[in-house]
Amino acid sequence: MTARAADRARYDRATAHLDAPLAIVDLDAFDANADDLVRRAGGKPVRVASKSVRCRALLERVLARDGFQGIMSFTLDESLWLARSGFEDILLAYPSADRAGFAELAADPKLAGAVTVMIDDPAHLDLIDAARDGGREVVRVCLELDTSLRLLGGRVRVGARRSPLHSPAQLAELARSVSRRPGFRLVGIMAYEGHVAGVGDAVAGRPLRSRAIRLMQATARRELAERRAAAVRAVRAVAPDLEFVNGGGTGSVQHTAAEDAVTEIAAGSGLYVPRLFDNYTSFSGRPAALFAQPVVRRPGVGVVTVLGGGYPASGAAGSDRLPVPYLPEGLRYDPQEGPGEVQTPLLGSPADDLLIGDKVWFRHAKAGELCERFDTLHLVEGDTVTACVPTYRGEGRTFL
């Protein structure tokens, strides 16, 4: 029996009393992935990206482990909810225009002490001040550095369109704006190199493309390491008490951790290891989060149909944004239908061994987005479900 076949047998036994659709997290794999992130971080703390987990119980589990410290959140509303729930040291990774949230933040010393907000424009400071509604708490601020690689005098850009602050001088100028502004305190810098951390460099069947990606990423890492160090020096000249410099992501943990200027690493997807992380040469993890759909039809030889399953991930549309049938091995989508809203035909010889009511296990393309489809995660240890915990959705929270 292969390792994957053994996993299927375990998951089927563990959930035999449960009807699909359902989602699980294999805690043995989850914990092993957490250990791997800590190992690759080389002694620097890992800040957990909550958007990749979206389950308070699992955030608590990973933050209780050595090597993890703090949360990187994705909306202000989520940040305040987590802080009210007892989490501390929450870094909001994206600028916000949530005026009601800023009013609450500025009026509550506990929230203001726990949450750091992201800015990359003086207009963000203006918006926060206009939203205070009498609140006088000092707002903790982090600046975001654009990490994109620019070539040929800026005519070629590689990387996500995030912050407009690309040069150390631009970052330092905004730092001076914060330092002159009453009611704000600059505490951190963030720089997320998504074109390194979030792009696989071993694309199956595409050796030339994979080589080009590796060359691009090596160039990007060298350029960013120099520019990030210069940016940190420039900002520390303005704010010498800077508390943290955050960088990285699951796909670049060990490379970013090697930079002296970086004090902590962000990661989250590496806990679940969705399918987008199958194409990396720098690390390998164990798939920990899966969902099961029930077989509801047997249309013919080599074909079964499962209920639902059309759960595409965000990003540029393409087949890499689709979940993949994972267990039993050897199933594939019908290219004329793909994964559907209410039904999904699956082709392949393993279909002939599946009966009505059997489970087919899938992996989502991205990590936390799976939790927007399910309100409960069944936690599996060995071949037993040992707990059932709510996702954000299961707690009635849909932040985006």
| Rounded Rg | 22 Å
By DSSP (H or I, 4+ residues per run), the number of helices equals 12
Give the helix proportion (percent range).
Answer: 25-40%
Low-pLDDT runs: none
User: What best-fitting shape do the alpha-carbon axes yield?
Assistant: globular
Class inferred from helices and paired strands? alpha/beta
Oligomer: single chain
Distance, first to last CA: 42 Å
Mean pLDDT: 93
The portion of residues forming beta strands comes to: 15-25%
The main pleated sheet reads as:
9 strands, mixed
Give the beta-strand count: 19
Structural notes for this entry:
The protein has 400 residues and is an alpha/beta fold. Helices cover 32% and strands 24% of the residues. It has helices spanning 3-14, 27-41, 56-63, 76-84, 99-107, 109-114, 122-131, 168-179, 194-197, 207-238, 253-257, 269-272; strands at residues 22-26, 46-49, 68-73, 90-92, 115-119, 139-144, 149-151, 156-158, 184-191, 244-247, 264-267, 289-300, 303-307, 324-327, 332-333, 343-347, 359-363, 376-381, 384-390. The two termini are 42 Å apart. 45% of the residues are buried.
